[in-house]
Amino acid sequence: MKNTRKFLPHPLLTPLLVCFWLLLNNSLTPGQILLGLLLAWIIPAYTQAYWPHEVPIKRPGRLVIFMGRFLVEILLANLVVARLILAGPRVLRPAFVVVPLRLRHELALSLLANIICLTPGTVSARLSNNRRELLVHALDSADPAALVTRIQHRFETPLKEIFEC
Asked: How do beta strands 122-127 and 95-100 pair?
């Protein structure tokens, strides 16, 4: 296992990088696959010094399910934002909400903030100094409490299960 880690420092990151490379290039040609494999091997190897700890994924199966659900969330949020844009600015109810956090793992906190930003219609604005609250801006929120509950249920709880168990 130690020799494998020396040759392939982040075995979960490498296939993910290959997939992203192929998606970004929208091509499955042998040259792109080879280039993606090469980059996906080189990038983790040369950035190893910047990774302070091994990434603790407690439940990898849950991570795969979460990624699928997250992609569905992005699709649905895009449809909602498109509807809001077509309806015009007078129907918008923007709001800042404070999301109390139970997550403690730094990578999980970072992923949560980024996931919120990647979901159209919401933006992570600020993480409190004690890392117990995340300020989120929503483009349209009729019920801020429901938004907090949705973020905690759909994003924070699965990340807690994946990284903190």
From this structure: unpaired
Measure the CA–CA gap between 119 and 112, rounded to whole angstroms. 11
pLDDT tens digits, one per residue of 66-97: 999 999 999 999 999 999 989 888 889 999 99
Which structure tokens are listed for 36? Answer: 């993606």
Phi-psi region of 64 (alpha: psi -120 to 50; beta: other; left: phi over 0): alpha
Q: For residue 105, give both structure tokens.
A: 């793992």
**Which residues pair with residue 98 across a beta bridge?**
135
Q: What is the pLDDT of residues 28-46, one digit of tens each?
A: 999 999 999 999 989 888 8
Query: What pTM value is reported for the model?
Result: 0.75
Q: What is the DSSP string of 11-68?
A: TTHHHHHHHHHHHHHT---HHHHHHHHHHHHHHHHHTGGG--S----S-HHHHHHHHH
